[in-house]
């Protein structure tokens, strides 16, 4: 790995949504647009450059509220970006998420033919995301962005997904969400794990050195520099099936919570097994300064505290010895809950659509999101578990279970059904504010 030196990020040119953790609590909305008239699309980009808050604005006009604008590869083409320029962007981004479905485990009920229209299709050109501490501030953010697309007959809103924070500050399976955020050199934002050396800026922002010393440079420079790639995914959660699995594999309520913790790697309060292996510690789970400050290799290499196959250890193995250098596969992850909660104790599905809007931010879609999704989440070879998949989000078919390391005999749980189904998504580019203005001036 490269030696870490200071870097001066051009924060006033980077969209705030790239680096800032979401507020707690939060409300969010995703708006998808199709560009029918390239001139109107370019006008949308010009207007958006004024609506978007930069990472340098520690306090935006609306407080902990911001708007982000992302563009798909097809959107860039419609706006008039030349093919020669498009070919300098990441090839996964150029292919689009639907074309990458099999590699991502989006098969069967998660395959693109079952996705919500227009997700994964040719009509997804621009994704506008607004994030705020609550519904009132969110509507204010949307109102602030509305002039960017109002009155443009050649730009059509084709999809919207509203998200919010549950009163419990958890996602639908009941776990505290939004616990982990990496430290990025030059961002001015403290990471959630004080034991982690800040990652190179080029892992997340284009135009800066990454962990290998390389620099991703889509051309021309003013289009690519200070931008990032974003992965958006709508993930439906089968909460009733998850609850039944825990109940059917436990000896009682206390054991049920232990299994839930072993599957996730954290108690539902957010307290990690690495720091609270015997019992839940809600005070720890609620403390952002402590709940993510831990490593694995020094005192738990075999996973007796935190199983190697649990969700959080797969998603971020930290210092554990695994296939691939961990620092090359880190991501900024954000989840936003959508849909009504399933009432507590209900074990049968009520037919409502509920789940997470998932977002990944990074500069390397292939070795970050796709590597983690295919190698760490949907395979188990990297930690010696053959084809075992992530117990929470893996593409299960009912053929493999989950193993809890334990002395004197390990505990094997029943085969896992699929708890999470992909409902759609796309690879996008988050342009810098300079790039938004450039996209607005194409062909002038």
Automatic annotation (TrEMBL):
Q: Give one Pfam family.
A: DyP_N
Provide this UniProt record's keywords sorted from A to Z: Iron, Metal-binding, Oxidoreductase, Peroxidase
Q: Where are stretches of biased composition, namely Low complexity?
A: 276-286
* InterPro entries recorded: Dimeric_a/b-barrel, DyP_N, Dyp_peroxidase
Extract the ranges annotated as region (Disordered): 276-307
Which GO CC terms are listed, alphabetically?
A: cytosol
Q: Which domain of life is it from?
A: Bacteria
What's this protein's family per the entry?
Answer: Belongs to the DyP-type peroxidase family.
| PANTHER family (UniProt xref) | BLR4509 PROTEIN (PTHR30521:SF5), DEFERROCHELATASE/PEROXIDASE (PTHR30521)
What's the name of the protein?
Answer: Peroxidase
Which organism encodes this protein?
Answer: Streptomyces filipinensis
